[in-house]
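Escalation from tier 1.

The customer reports that the assembly of two entities below gives different structure tokens on two consecutive runs. Tier 1 could not reproduce it. I'm attaching the input and our single run for tier 2 to review.
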Amino acid sequence: MNNKKKLLTTSIASLIALTGFSTSAAELTIKVTNLTHGIAFTPLLVASHDSDTHLFESGVAASVALQKMAEGGSIADLSAQIDAASGHKTENPNMGLLMPGTTTPEFMHDSMNDTHLSLTAMLLPTNDGFAGLDSWKIPSEAGTYTILVNAYDAGTEANNELYVMGAGMPGQIGIPAVPTGTVGTNGTGLSTEDNNKMIHIHPGNIGDDMADGGKSDLDNKVHRWLNPVLKVTVTVK
Amino acid sequence: MTHLSKAKKSLLALACLSTITLVGCGGSSSSMMPTPAPTPVPTYEYEVTVTNITSNQPLSPITLVTHKDDYTPFTVGMPSDAALELLAESGDNSQVLAITTIIDQASDSAPLGPGGSYSHTLETKDTTLNLSILSMLVNTNDAFTGLNSHDLTSYAVGDMKSFKLNVYDSGTEANTETAATIPGPATMGMGEGFNAARDDIIDLVTMHQGVVSQDDGLTDSVLNASHRFDNFVAKVSIKRIK
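Tier 1 run:
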């Protein structure tokens, strides 16, 4: 009798513990699909954090950390910001570029007590285009959620559409890599200045139809896109 | 012993006879062998309306199909099947409509012009079906729009949902935009539609990047600024009416 009572108490306690666990911490399963026909994405940064933390916000100037990601694909500084804000991160779940039409392996992201989810990756080939999810509220209800992500312009580099190998650091103008299609040469350059220096919806690549010369080093049949550019599938357990 | 054997034989003969009768007489045997009246199968009705919201992209005859989970018209990141390739390159939906796992189907009789609407009441014998819609943007190489396997199960009579549809690239034809390759009114229908060669930069269904047009810097393009599009290109409403 005593034993039975004890057993019952224990199972109630574990039931409470289980319930508590599922509402205060979420184990997320995530996969990300590149929806575009001719754009590749640099390594993804997926981060969960509190409601005050942002990797970026549209209409607001980019941080230097965001600029490094948007111009050169480097996520180290953004990642450090998430650590500083006591958030949790998953870096480069695809182990490299995410090519057109492909999907990352499904990966686990333990968001602990974090309430919001964000994500960034640079679009190649662009000067400072990136796909971004800013502070998606993590649902408490179990289920599978689909989020469509648009392309933004960091507002930190003119979209001249000229290929300059490795020009990814802030201050270096040019598209650092062209992983899809064929890159042109001897373009004269498109924009010389960003009209909107805040983070904004990207106006898109223009490109041209000349492999040699023209205004752009990009191919207008290959390197354009329409939003959305990424599909994020999140399963909340 | 002999008697029993005879009875067995005649039983066998009778069995053969009735088999023959059934096979031979088919439907007209009802007067001889009254069958119970079939329980009427209830039917359900869904009114589907598709509106073309593009500037100058007629949509090839709107194709509505219902099916179970054993058919998926397209998946981003997977190659197109041959039926979708035909539809996306030429607007011809005959192979899609011939897919054996399709349960109910309807097709508009003509392309749906910009601003136009197509309404059809789909009659089904089941409410646990998926509805898919497919159509080509005919002034393109291989752009199509669609509603992909939308689950009708949760619809009660009177329920209505609406959607806006994106544009996809079937990944089966390079987006050259040349007069030789565009089948729609932009070439007076002179361009080639279907070609079995798969010469796109990737043989995967993706979202479409839009057309460039001659006005925006593609010298060989037969398209002009009016043929450009963005997401979305069609509006859909689905209402269960019975």
